[in-house]
Amino acid sequence: MPPLADKVDKLFRTIRTNGREYTYDEVARGCSELSGGTFSKTYVWQLRTGQRDNPTKRHLEALAAFFRVPAAYFFDDDTAERVDAQLAIASAMGNAEVRDIALRAMSMDDSGRKHLARIIREVSLLHSAASSRGPVGRDNAKSENAKGDSPEERGTDAAAGAGE
User: What is the Cα–Cα distance from 2 to 52, expressed in whole angstroms?
Assistant: First the structure.
């Protein structure tokens, strides 16, 4: 997909209304109202899919205004990176579990947040390692522990710290 289409598609996927993507018709109507010009749902679809990749400045400004991003998002890489990072955070905050973790972290002191960040890194590493090994069934997990891989059998602090 051309870079413009990628950006338009990302806006559709991440900036939502009532938990769903905007329709092409909603975007076209909104852009028409914002720009005072005409936009068709087909044209919006063409921009999103890369069928058209040379919109006018007015069209880009209307799309930017509709999705509430700076117009520079479409042609300045630094702005695009900054906006994409903000969209990723906003999207993650739409997830109830992520929002709950973030809200709890806000009420912690610096030490608590550092511990939480360490725990999240560890869980992420464990998840990545498990994903790279493939699915582990009950039989495989039992055989791994039988080999002395459990924290208790290795004599590590992980077993002692489990109850903390």
Answer: 9
pLDDT one-digit tens code per residue, 76-135 = 999 999 999 988 888 887 777 887 888 788 889 999 999 999 999 999 999 888 888 766
In this structure, are residues 31 and 63 in contact, taking their beta carbons and an 8 Å threshold? yes
CA atoms of 42 and 60, how far apart (whole Å): 16
- Under a CB-based contact definition with an 8 Å cutoff, are residues 53 and 47 in contact? yes
DSSP state at residue 134: -
pTM of the model: 0.62
For residue 85, what is the enclosing H or E element? helix 77-93
**Mapped to the 3 state alphabet, what secondary structure does the chain carry?**
CCHHHHHHHHHHHHCEECCEECCHHHHHHHHHHHHCCCCCHHHHHHHHHCCCCCCCHHHHHHHHHHHCCCHHHHCCHHHHHHHHHHHHHHHHHCCHHHHHHHHHHHCCCHHHHHHHHHHHHHHHHHHHHHHHHCCCCHHHHHHHHHCCCCHHHHCCHHHHHCCC
